[in-house]
Amino acid sequence: MTTPEIQKAQTAREEYFLDKGMDVEVETEADEEPPEIDRPWNPEQIRVNTKQFSLRNALDMIDDESLELAPDFQRGRVWKSVQKSQLIESVLLQIPLPAFYFAEDADGLLRVVDGLQRLSTIHDFVRGGEKSGFALKGLEYLAHVEGKRFDELPAPWKRRINNAQIMAHVIDPTTPPEVMYDIFRRINTLGTPLNAQEIRHCMSRPRSRRILKEMTSTDAFYQATGMRNHIRMNDREMALRFAAFWLMGLDGYVEDAAMDPFLHRATRLLDSVGEVDDDKVARIQADFNKAMTNARLVFGDHAFRKWPEDVSWRNPINRPLFETWSLALARYDTDDLVRRKDAIVAQARSLMTHDFRYLEAITSSTGDVRRVMYRFRLTEMAAEAGK
Questions:
Q1: ∠376-371-181 over CA atoms, to 5°?
Q2: How many domains does the chain have?
Q3: How does DSSP classify residue 276?
Q4: Would you state the pLDDT for residue 111?
Q5: Same domain, yes or no, for 22 and 55?
Q6: Among candidates 356, 209, 213, 218, which has minimal Cα distance to 292?
Q7: What does the radius of gyration of the chain's CA atoms come to, in whole angstroms?
Q8: pTM of the full predicted structure?
Q9: Which of 110, 215, 354, 360 could form a disulfide with 239 if both were Cys (CB 3.0 to 4.6 A apart)?
Q10: What DSSP state is assigned to residue 134?
Q11: Structural domain contains residue 340
Q12: According to the lineage, what is the superkingdom (predicted)?
């Protein structure tokens, strides 16, 4: 790496959403690498059925939990009042809504993956009631219903909403999960696209969602990262990375050779009591909590962030640093780290200043197997400093 490249790598680039910094560093892949979506699979494995529903039918399915709006999915709620109202106005004007995409599981449960914000908005308006349902605001054409809630609309307008037809493409449960994920990545283009963890959240079962939520809701995690209910679910992804490497190790990563399929497999494991029982989940969570406590103890405000020797500012969280240091620090007792923390910090900062290969491994093409193995090996060695 040349000096300008080194300086660029040392200065982290932060992710933004709705013009707000996410305090998480952008992960980049090399332009010359083929996108992971091109990983081969048999086109005959794709099974998609197109179905038509009335909005009343869709809302009933949401209420009886046969159509699931992924819980804890905060980004579905970020639309402003005018955006929500204009969606309802479009329905009242009988403008067809874009197609929805649902994932069906073996029990017949449907999960919304594409169209979550639209269905959440309509459900809030129609079924929210007087206290939680919102009033229409900022309408462009139907000024005479401005300020009204659903219950206050004339009966013909209510019927128009309830009887409106929507088209949904339903991915059959026999479609392999990795194929299903790729389908949703391909069609995920409207509005602000979902990121990988948001798609996994929508496609996963309640058990893995609960586990990841519990892992990221502790004081120890907040003290180490400053994150709480991250709007883009970066906190859940980082907890999932820890669980994935805890469960499958580097050998498991080599088998998948890319981060997305590795994390999909970890999600499926966490969803299965037969594969990962409650006792093992408790051990994962205990080790994760220990790692967060130790990271704060050793690195303070710079935990999981690039911190070269000549840098004093606080960079955003770096996910490769998070996965490697959290796994490394989970193995040590607090008393041991108190004695050695200055040596560990010095070694970690030296790596981020002088070892250009290590800096590359936490900056670009971070899913490359060789870079993953290199950063784990060097981090484990740094964690031994001062012994």
A1: 100
A2: 2
A3: S
A4: 85
A5: no
A6: 218
A7: 23
A8: 0.76
A9: 215
A10: P
A11: yes
A12: Bacteria
